[in-house]
Amino acid sequence: MNKVIGLWGVASTGKTTTLNLLIDLLEVATTDCPMPTPQPERVERRKAFIYNGFKIGIATGGDTDDIVKENCAFFDDEKCDIVFSATRKRYDSGSHIELTNYAERFGLSVTWIEKDTDTTSRTKYIVNLQQALDLLDMI
Asked: What residues make up the domain containing 60?
């Protein structure tokens, strides 16, 4: 394990949507697929990719510690080098604690990224896409 990245924020700020966009970007980058299959909003997925020589794991759900435990088990099963998981609030939630404990198993600290938010539906997609591109740059 090289890096654990937690995308955190309160409910309904676009964490799942942003990580789904990151999955879409990696699907385009790692397959011959010119356009990924559109996902309904808020669909939670777990996917793994080989990208830039690393096994990348992404888990879009993270509202509870149980969901993050399942994410971490997925990352272990896939033998991921770099992982991304959504969590709720950064400091006071079970999901935050679970991801922190997972990183510490590998002698790592979580790289915490606060979810960028935008309250207007007109620009929300742009904000989510830009943050997904920023996360891709972290690989």
From this structure: 3-136
